[in-house]
Amino acid sequence: MNPETTPLDKTRFDLQIIASWIEPGSRVLDLGCGHGDLLLMLKRHKQINGTGIELSEEKVGRCIERGLTVLQGDFSEEILDYPDHRFDCVVLSQTLQQVMNPKELIPELLRIGKRVIVSFPNFGHWQVRLQVLLTGQAPVTGQLPYEWYDTPNIRVISIKDFKQFLRMTGIKPVKEVAINSHHHDENGHIIKYLINLRATYGIMMLERSA
Amino acid sequence: MQQIKRLMEKASDKKNSTAPLRVKKQYFTFAEPPNEMILDSGARLGPITLAYETLGRLNADKSNAVVILHACSGDSHVAGYYGDDDPRPGWWENMVGPGKPVDTNRYFVICSNILGSCMGSTGPSSINPKTGRPYGFDFPMVTIRDMVRAQKHLIDHLGITRIMSMLGGSVGGMQVLRWCTDYPEMVVSAIPLATTTRHSAQAIAFDEVARQAIMADPDWQGGNYYDGPGPRHGLAVARMIGHITYLSDESMRNKFGRRLQNRSSLSFDFAGDFQVESYLRYQGAKFVERFDANSLLYITKASDYFDLEGDDGSALLDERLTAIRFMVISFSSDWLYPTYQSRALVSKLKKNGCDVSFCEIDAQWGHDAFLLPNKQLDSIISSFLNRIDHESRNNTAR
Which domain holds residue B278? Predict the structure, then answer.
């Protein structure tokens, strides 16, 4: 699938939502940008000025092949160099659960970006809860497809946890959506009720308090 | 008739694609007295000749120029052949040429020999017009900035005001960065490869050992050796030292290990037992045939002096640099200019608000890796140039 030619409604559902929150022509930093799918899609549909940060040399090479600006490195360190307000929007898409120091990271992201969009798999989803309850084993689901020994996910977060974290750190979410979709599916829907139980992903937009 | 013409065109196309690329060394002389070029040291130098070669064609709006800056002992012969009997192509044949990553069907490539060298440009082995004899140690000290200053004269002479991309590795990368800091309005994009913003103590140390090897050779004669044999032994040793810094522990282990050269047991004398010894001796001897010892002294000194992080603040923190798009590349096993030095460069450019990409290519070949065939490097350079080319077109269209 080529994110440059794919229509917006045929891209991953969570990315569709992120794209809808990003203003055309804005400066976007994508942390853990992988092969650059999101940046390429935003470049095409929103004419953004994008930068990605990615650890893997192979993925960085692919991003460059696709004409993107990308830095190879660990984003927790790479972001420290940027001046204040360098970006209009910083995206942390499905990577929060792999971050070593979220408590330091998120305020730092709000320093370099006016807005921060965070999306993460919801560990509070009923399937996860049920698996733990019934099997007594670490859960493996479509959103959390790893075994305990090979998972890159070092943080267990639910939507409820993250909102509590925001209250504790004094950061206000200006937009939030909980969705139910499969990992790579373009179809999905927004969950309005019992979100911590029913949503597979949480997506929030954070802003600096003035 | 039309058909015949088309067939003939097709045939000649075919011929072009297989025929070796022909290039010609050209010369540009400027700074004739009394308008000598003033160097960083304050000395005046002139006339100055730069040897250069061009490949491909400059387009109508002069927007497709790619300038390649060579490393320490390189020359203007970046790619192609001088003639039918030329046994070897230029030094970056795998990177530059028709259909290559730096595609001469699309870009106009310029490569000039650096000031202070001995491969056609003015340097210590050139004739001093005041004495009619080679300059020797009367040649003034030149810096990387002086080299770039001289290149600027050449680019002006060629009528080019905007350079689509500046590309160079090692000491060539230093020139790329100097171009960016000194003539930012002329540089659209820059690809500093396997380079640094300043020499580390370790890099200076190796250069100094190389210089001492030359200067300790009795045939060096205080730099005025052009009537005699010259410091052949010292220069060979200097090159051997240089070569060690271009390799890596891993590549030497794989290439030579402890294998013996043309023998099955140790010789118990100093004739040379190991393959690595034989390799270094060969490289040293080969270098003596083509390079001037004084040039090596001057160029290594220039690279030791190079420092973009001087006492009066970093030259890279300059808002005029923000319009330049950068692609910084390092190699994992390069211990002469390790990745942390490229990262320091990237960090400065980020603080500056530049559009900068960075990739550390995993390669075992040490510093030399930037010159060796590498698919990842090829892909990065061709894609980046392609992107810059497209962005420039879109900008002019707008």
Answer: 199-305
Residue B268, domain CATH: 1.10.1740.110
Q: Which residues of B touch A (CB under 8 A)?
A: 325, 327, 343, 346-347, 350-351, 353, 355-362, 376, 379-380, 383-384, 386-387, 390
pLDDT of B15 reads: 44
* Predicted pLDDT at A183: 61
Q: Point out the residues of B that are catalytic.
A: 170, 334, 367
Whether B276 is covered by a domain: the verdict is yes
The pLDDT of residue B14? 45
For residue B398, the model assigns a pLDDT of 47
> Taking 80 as the threshold, does the pLDDT of residue B116 lie above it?
yes
- The predicted complex's ipTM stands at 0.91
Please give the full DSSP string across B228-255, using - where no structure is assigned: S--SHHHHHHHHHHHHHHHS-HHHHHHH
Q: Which residues contact A174 (CB under 8 A, 6 or more apart)?
A: A115, A205, A206, A207
Number of H helices, E strands in chain B: 10, 14
Q: Does residue B343 fall inside a structural domain? A: no
CA distance B338 to chain A (A): 15
Task: Give a yes or no: residue A135 inside a domain.
Answer: no
Domain that holds residue A29: 8-123+155-207
Rounded-to-integer distance, Cα B118 and Cα A63, Å: 41
pTM: 0.93
pLDDT tens-digit profile of A109-124? Answer: 999 999 999 999 999 9
Check which CATH number belongs to the domain holding A48 and give it.
3.40.50.150
Q: Is A105 within a domain?
A: yes
At A9-34, the pLDDT tens digits run 777 888 899 999 999 999 999 999 99
Record: contact A67-B386, CB cut-off 8 A: yes
B97-116 average pLDDT score: 98
- CA gap A96, A118 in Å, rounded: 7
Asked whether residue A57 is assigned to any structural domain, the reply reads yes
Q: How many domains does chain A have?
A: 1
Q: What is the pLDDT at residue B3? A: 59
Query: Looking at the 3D structure of chain B, how many domains does it have?
Result: 1
Which chain A positions have a beta carbon within 8 Å of B359's beta carbon? 57, 60-61, 64, 70, 72
Direct distance between the N- and C-terminal alpha carbons of chain B, in angstroms, rounded to an integer? 42
pLDDT one-digit tens code per residue, B161-174: 999 999 999 999 99
B1 pLDDT more than 70: no
Query: In chain B, what residues touch A69 (CB-CB under 8 Å)?
Result: 325, 355-357
Is B12 part of a structural domain of the chain?
A: no
DSSP conformational letter for B161: -
Q: Min CA distance, A148 vs chain B (Å)?
A: 29
SS3 assignment, position A52: strand
pLDDT value of residue A143 = 82
- Tell me if B299 is assigned to some domain: yes
Residues of A in Cβ contact (< 8 Å) with B347: 81
Q: Which residues of A touch B343 (CB under 8 A)?
A: 73
Does residue A16 lie within any of the structural domains?
A: yes
CB A70, CB A33: distance < 8 Å: yes
